[in-house]
Amino acid sequence: MTLEILTPETKLYSGEVHGVQLPGIEGSFEILEKHAPLVAALGKGKIKVLKTKSEIFSYTIQSGFAEVLDNKTTVLVEGAAE
């Protein structure tokens, strides 16, 4: 699956991943390979990027949106930090 994490200023991440965990406004959720199309609002919390099943890193965000379409997840965030 392809993942892009974007802020108004920069592209934080772009590449292939195993999956991503996102802080939805009503609770956390995970996107994996071939997920159904989705648009979701994100709340304050951590985005966990699952580069492989054992390599994980994260970003702390204030808010944002995520779109899943055609095995690509695009995350637009405000106030991100590693």
Describe it for me?
It is found in: Endomembrane system. It comes from Parafilimonas terrae. Keywords: ATP synthesis, CF(1), Ion transport, Membrane, Transport. One of its GO terms (molecular function) is proton-transporting ATP synthase activity, rotational mechanism. Produces ATP from ADP in the presence of a proton gradient across the membrane. The chain has strands at residues 2-6, 11-16, 19-24, 27-32, 38-42, 45-50, 56-61, 63-69, 72-78. The mean pLDDT is 95. Strands 2-1-9-8-5 form a 5-stranded mixed sheet, with no helix packed on it. A 4-stranded antiparallel sheet has the order 4-3-6-7, with no helix packed on it. It is built from no helices and 9 strands. With 82 residues, it is mostly beta strands. The chain has a single domain (2-78), classed as ATP Synthase, domain 1, CATH 2.60.15.10.
Q: Strands, helices and their partners?
A:
Blueprint: E1 2-6, E2 11-16, E3 19-24, E4 27-32, E5 38-42, E6 45-50, E7 56-61, E8 63-69, E9 72-78
Parallel strand pairs: 1-9
Antiparallel strand pairs: 1-2, 3-4, 3-6, 5-8, 6-7, 8-9
Subunit structure: F-type ATPases have 2 components, CF(1) - the catalytic core - and CF(0) - the membrane proton channel. CF(1) has five subunits: alpha(3), beta(3), gamma(1), delta(1), epsilon(1). CF(0) has three main subunits: a, b and c.
Keywords: ATP synthesis, CF(1), Ion transport, Membrane, Transport
GO molecular function: proton-transporting ATP synthase activity, rotational mechanism
